[in-house]
Amino acid sequence: LLYWLCGNAYVVMTGELLGVNDAGALRALQLLVTPVTQIQVAMNLLFLPSAASRLGSGGVPAFQHFALRFSCVLATMAVAFIPALWMFGAWFVGILYGAKYDNYVHLLPLLGALPVIAALSSIWLSGLRMRGATLRVLAVDALGALITLGAGPWLIRRYGIDGAAIGLVLSSAARLPVVAWLWLWPDRDRSN
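Predicted structure:
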């Protein structure tokens, strides 16, 4: 639920505060970013067995080295997608939705930051899960949910659908330093 609040709640809040048309526009734009996210999910599933092996045999330093390289590959791929959104986003929106969402195309590069952020955080969150630090993962998701519920309604009321897109990126990006800090925080026991 907390993870869901970080991203999907913005569509619900946009629908409630601005109307169904704007909520549909936000979801339509998010769908254009989804292919990169789906590739990342598939690559993360390929990453997990190898990462678990490195964590088990070489400990945290071996995992960190492998995870850093893997995160850089995913992040580079996601960053490379942003210019494609910038150059071809209007064309894709036109093909898929006609002129219905033309006024929102400017948000595509901003939403393109979401897979970059996911690339930088998902591997480390998986590592926390592998280390048995599930409460730390919960804390990261709770922070994103708190920002969503705290700042999201204000951003949407103040800036409309642009505020929803800003909130999506903000809720995701705020999790990055917390993930890094929780990863580097020494284990006191396996339950935190």
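Summary: Helices lie at 2-7, 9-17, 20-97, 108-111, 113-130, 134-159, 161-173, 175-184.
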